[in-house]
Structures are given as structure tokens and as C-alpha cells.
């Protein structure tokens, strides 16, 4: 079984995916973390990301890291996905304002999208996958698809609890990222839409689970 959970920035995708995945005893995959990891790697190496010409050097870097035995390694832990590189957990560095500011530029590069999608499609179901285009593009034949949304204000208020920033600037940054990500963020036509602003996290997880078969007893 493949379940996709897509949605706008900070709509609750990874928290909901984590709760649902734990209830179903299956892994979840955070595709956004791979886009963030590639962005972080580019920033570390001083590669520009804001032109179409950025794609070649970025893909060269990612392939060179793989060749060297130090690839960006997504670890789909149920309590929260991590990315490791060269024996180090780099996950914390992926949720900074700097990565937020550059990740949308990286995410429009077709070669980077292929790099992410190939890694996800190589995995054996059952799993949940969360991001923007999991249900529309990467797993169009998924068994169950969800699309999460909430007002920009609600999302910003939640995000400031995770990061020491003021709510107005977080809201503006989220809206800007929604605009820049709009192309890959169109919901799959058969996705069930859920407003995460209208319930607590456990309630939203229960709403999703209500649409899914109960986990097997084994
Ligand atoms: N009802 C809710 N549904 C989803 N997330 C919620 C809810 N209430 C609070 N949150 C919180 O919102 C924050 C953003 O969620 P997150 O899973 O990081 O979103 P995304 O993966 O879409 O960026 C998290 O701290 C999460 O716990
Ligand atoms: N399937 C995906 C997942 C993420 N992205 C891009 C768009 C987002 O701005 C970044 C980061 O996504 P992530 O889901 O980690 O972050 P937010 O929930 O938006 O805070 O990656 C994408 O283009 N396609």
C-alpha cells in the first residue's frame, strides 16, 4: 500500500505522516527533506541556485558525493525522518531560514526533481510519502491520497513555536514559498482535502486513519 500526504508549507505533512505511519506500522518518507538536503549541500559548496544553469553543478556535486561513498542518506525513522552524510546527522541544519529561502529555487530544477523521485520510487511499499507532488506525479497510482492545507496565519503561528522568529515574517516567508512552489503543488484530482487548522494534531491523524484500512494484526 502507498499513501501520499501532500500540502502547502507547514500544513502539518510530516507530523500527520509520522502519526499515521506509526499507527499503521509502516515507514513514511519526507521528500521535502531531500530537497532541503540538496539545497544545504549547494549552500555548503557555494553553488548558486537561482538560475537554470545551477542544475549541472548541483547534480555533479550530488553524484560526486555518491561516488565518494558519502551520499545524502534519507533515513525514514517513524518518529521523524533524518538525513545523514558522511557519518553525521545533518537533519537539524535542514530547517534553517537560509535553507527555507533557497529550497524553492532548487526544487524547480528538473534534474533535482528526478534525483529525488528516483530515490523514492526505488523503495518497496508499504509506505507513506509526504511532500507536494507525491500523489500527483511521483505515485499517481497510490492507494490513498491526502492534501493538507490551513491558513497562512495558522501555519505561521505553529512554525514560530519551532523556531525563534516573529510570526509576521514567518507568515510572509511561507506565502512566498507557497507561490514559488505552486507548479509542483497542484493537488492530485483524487486527493482527499483536509484543513489541519480545524482540529488538533491527534484529531487530524484520526481523520486520515478513518479513510484507511485498519493495520493488520501481525
Ligand atoms: N492540527 C494540526 N495538524 C497538523 N500539524 C499541527 C497541528 N497542530 C499543530 N501542528 C504543528 O504544526 C507544525 C508544522 O507541522 P509540520 O508537520 O512540520 O508541517 P510540514 O511537514 O507540512 O512542514 C508542527 O509543529 C506540528 O506539530
Ligand atoms: N515533493 C516535494 C517536496 C518538497 N518540495 C520543495 C518545496 C518546499 O519549499 C521544500 C521543502 O519542503 P518541506 O516539505 O520540507 O517543507 P515545508 O513543509 O514546506 O516547510 O521542498 C517540492 O518541491 N516537492
UniProtKB/TrEMBL annotation:
This is Cytidylate kinase. SUPFAM superfamilies: P-loop containing nucleoside triphosphate hydrolases (SSF52540). One of its GO terms (biological process) is pyrimidine nucleotide metabolic process. It comes from Deinococcus aquiradiocola. The keyword Membrane does not apply. Keywords: ATP-binding, Cytoplasm, Kinase, Nucleotide-binding, Transferase. One of its GO terms (molecular function) is ATP binding. It is found in: Cytoplasm. NCBIfam families: cmk. InterPro entries: Cytidylate_kin, Cytidylate_kinase_dom, P-loop_NTPase. Its EC number is 2.7.4.25. Residues 3-211 form the Cytidylate kinase domain. It comes from the Bacteria. HAMAP family: Cytidyl_kinase_type1 (MF_00238). Belongs to the cytidylate kinase family. Type 1 subfamily. GO terms for cellular component: cytoplasm. It catalyses: dCMP + ATP = dCDP + ADP; CMP + ATP = CDP + ADP. ATP binds at residues 7-15. Its main location: cytoplasm.
Amino acid at each position: 500500500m502507498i499513501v501520499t500526504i501532500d500540502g502547502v508549507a507547514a500544513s502539518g505533512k510530516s507530523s500527520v505522516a509520522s502519526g499515521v505511519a506509526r499507527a499503521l506500522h509502516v515507514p513514511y518518507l519526507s521528500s521535502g527533506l531531500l530537497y532541503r538536503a540538496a539545497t544545504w549541500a549547494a549552500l555548503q559548496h557555494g553553488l548558486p541556485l537561482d538560475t537554470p544553469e545551477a542544475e549541472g553543478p548541483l547534480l555533479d556535486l550530488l553524484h560526486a558525493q555518491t561516488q565518494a561513498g558519502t551520499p545524502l542518506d534519507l533515513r525514514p525513522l517513524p518518529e521523524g525522518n533524518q538525513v545523514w552524510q558522511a557519518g553525521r546527522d545533518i537533519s537539524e541544519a535542514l530547517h534553517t531560514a537560509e535553507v527555507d529561502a533557497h529550497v524553492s529555487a532548487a526544487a524547480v530544477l528538473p534534474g533535482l526533481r528526478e534525483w529525488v523521485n528516483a530515490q523514492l520510487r526505488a523503495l518497496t511499499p508499504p509506505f507513506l510519502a509526504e511532500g507536494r507532488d507525491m500523489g500527483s506525479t511521483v505515485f499517481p497510482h497510490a492507494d490513498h491520497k491526502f492534501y493538507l492545507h490551513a491558513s497562512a496565519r495558522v501555519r505561521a503561528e505553529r512554525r514560530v513555536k519551532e523556531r525563534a522568529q516573529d510570526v509576521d515574517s514567518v507568515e510572509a516567508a511561507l506565502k512566498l514559498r507557497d507561490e514559488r512552489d505552486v507548479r509542483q503543488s497542484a493537488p492530485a484530482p483524487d486527493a482527499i482535502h483536509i484543513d489541519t487548522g480545524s482540529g488538533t494534531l491527534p484529531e487530524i491523524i484520526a481523520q486520515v486513519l478513518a479513510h484507511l484500512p485498519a493495520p493488520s494484526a501481525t
